[in-house]
Specification:
The chain has helices spanning 10-27, 40-46, 57-69, 89-101, 111-127, 140-155, 159-162, 179-187, 208-220, 243-253, 290-293, 310-315, 344-354, 356-379, 408-422, 449-466; strands spanning 133-137, 169-174, 195-198, 224-231, 256-260, 285-289, 301-305, 383-385, 393-398, 428-432, 435-441. With 468 residues, the protein is α/β, with parallel strands linked by helices. The chain has three domains: 10-76; 103-342, Type I PLP-dependent aspartate aminotransferase-like (Major domain) (Aspartate Aminotransferase, domain 2), CATH 3.40.640.10; 357-466, Aspartate Aminotransferase, domain 1 (Alpha-Beta Complex). Strand 2, helix 8 (179-187) and strand 3 form a beta-alpha-beta unit. Helix 9 (208-220) runs parallel beside helix 10 (243-253) and helix 14 (356-379) runs parallel beside helix 16 (449-466). The longest helix is centred in the C-terminal third of the chain and has 24 residues, at 356-379. The radius of gyration is 24 Å and the shape is globular. The structure holds pyridoxal-5'-phosphate.
């Protein structure tokens, strides 16, 4: 493949792409530690300034692959940190196609808009959400912000134009909610003090009675509640708030209910965990990240709205620099973003090729993985389960015999780093109240029961060495 006259030749791009994809996918089966420092020449090149003249393409691509190999990538079956993804190949294919076409979604885009809407309906149907409208966004952060902006306009009509000065707007979420809610409240101009963090029960779920009390107090105080954000799958432990009880409160108080299911919502489609999501159908809006538990590459999130019209009320615009017909629905009248990648093609292609039953089976298998690890931790004399998993996240710690309790946190933090340096599995430490734990989140459809068993094998092998 050459770039000598400026533009790359397409046959060359195809050949190079397929060779690199093949070696990338093969490399995922050979875990290695993430250590950019181990390659000083690479680090030196990463500090170089903008090249004025062409560089050799193959050498540059080789560097790109080395950089990717030395970066945190969740595609490996034993990547168990944060909330990863499976990186489905069908999604890679759709991403490449979408990039080649570079469809313009910043205006009515023809069939792409219909596909976008079909994919939104499929996601809603998969999890059991009564869909009015929705669209794809860059991630849970933007989906949550989108919902909050729609809720703000409903609670305080005209706030788009007038702002919220003169109103004491409030938003409610649990102590365990993701920080994206804080940031969404800030970005929506409500001010961080508008956010009420509601206490949780021993399962780390929002207490509906405490929510009702907070709403009553605020109403009596002259505040305007804008939204309640329930979390369906908290980031730390995978707790699902009691959606039905929260929906009761929201109905009584006539407050918008948004469900942040960025991580957990796909589990609503399963037999094993579906019962936790009772009440989902009563929400005004819900976030689901396809780049977490639906196997897509980042970034690919969906905001689902129960009623039609709320998005247009929040985002409709009247620009006249590009003429479009008055009554023609322009998709960007319902989105915060103008130009954006054709994200829905990934999920549409993957859902069509694999089918809903396969997705359901995959998600069930990750739930079985967390149940398997939790059982192994319970049965192991040197490990302690710190939280009973509701979904696919397991928080546990190594408790070697004879180690004083006040050294457990430092020990588990060092153990997590040792596991990362070892490279066979990748997990990150987390803080559960005052306890440092090893946190494992199963969302990769390729993780096998043998992989699950490797977690305690590796952790006890490294943990016991740390301790001598
Ligand atoms: C519950 C929850 N909400 C929102 C987010 C933010 O999602 P994103 O990174 O896609 O913006 C996360 C990320 O982990 C999350 O776990």
């Amino acid at each position: 493949m050459s770039v000598s006259d400026g533009l790359a030749d397409r046959d060359g791009v195809l050949r190079v792409l397929s060779a690199h994809l093949a070696s990338a996918w093969a490399s995922f089966d050979h875990p290695r530690p993430v250590e950019p420092e181990a390659d000083p020449r690479l680090l030196e090149r990463l500090g170089a300034s903008l090249p004025p003249w062409p560089s050799d393409l193959q050498a540059t691509l080789n560097d790109a692959v080395r950089i990717l190999d030395a970066s945190v990538s969740p595609s490996r079956p034993l990547f168990l940190a944060y909330v990863g993804s499976s990186g489905l190949e069908t999604s890679v294919l759709a991403s490449a196609l979408a990039a080649a076409y570079d469809t313009n979604l910043a205006t009515a885009a023809g069939a792409a808009d219909l596909l976008d809407q079909q994919a939104v309906r499929w996601v809603a149907e998969f999890v059991g959400f009564p869909i009015g409208e929705g669209h794809f966004t860059s991630g849970g952060q933007v989906s949550n912000l989108t919902a909050l902006l729609a809720a703000r306009e409903q609670a305080l009509p005209g706030s788009r134009e007038n702002g919220v000065a003169g109103h004491r707007a409030t938003v409610y979420c649990s102590e365990e909610a993701h920080h994206s809610i804080v940031r969404a409240v800030e970005a929506a101009g409500l001010g961080r003090r508008a956010l009420r963090r509601i206490a949780t029960d021993p399962q780390r779920r929002m207490r509906a009675d405490a929510l009702a009390d907070a709403l009553a107090r605020d109403r009596a105080d002259g505040c305007t509640p804008v939204a309640v954000v329930a979390t369906a799958g908290t980031t730390l432990t995978g707790a699902v708030d009691p959606l039905d009880a929260i929906a009761d409160v929201c109905e009584r108080e006539n407050v918008w209910l948004h469900i942040d299911g960025a991580y957990g919502l796909p589990a609503a489609a399963t037999t094993a965990a579906g019962h936790w999501f009772s009440g989902l159908d009563r929400a005004d809006s819900a976030t689901i990240d396809a780049h977490k538990w639906l196997g897509m590459q980042k970034s690919c999130s969906v905001i689902l709205m129960h009623r039609r019209g709320a998005l247009r009320a929040a985002f409709g615009h009247e620009e006249r620099y590009m003429l479009h017909e008055e009554d023609t629905a322009n998709p960007v009248d319902r989105t915060f973003e103008y130009s954006r990648p054709f994200r829905s093609l990934r999920l549409w292609l993957s859902m069509r090729v694999h089918g809903a039953a396969q997705f359901r089976a995959w998600i069930e298998s990750t739930l079985a993985n967390s149940a398997r690890l939790a059982a192994a931790v319970r049965a192991h004399p040197q490990f302690e389960l710190l939280d009973e998993p509701m979904l696919s996240t397991v928080c546990f710690r190594h408790v070697p015999a004879g180690l004083p309790a006040d050294q457990l946190n430092a020990h588990n933090e060092r153990l997590a780093r040792a596991i990362q340096q070892d490279g066979r599995i990748y997990l990150a430490p987390a803080a559960l109240d005052d306890a440092v734990c090893l946190r494992v989140c199963f969302v990769n459809f390729r993780t096998t029961p043998d992989d699950v068993d490797a977690v305690l094998t590796v952790a006890s092998e490294l943990g016991n060495v740390l301790n001598v």
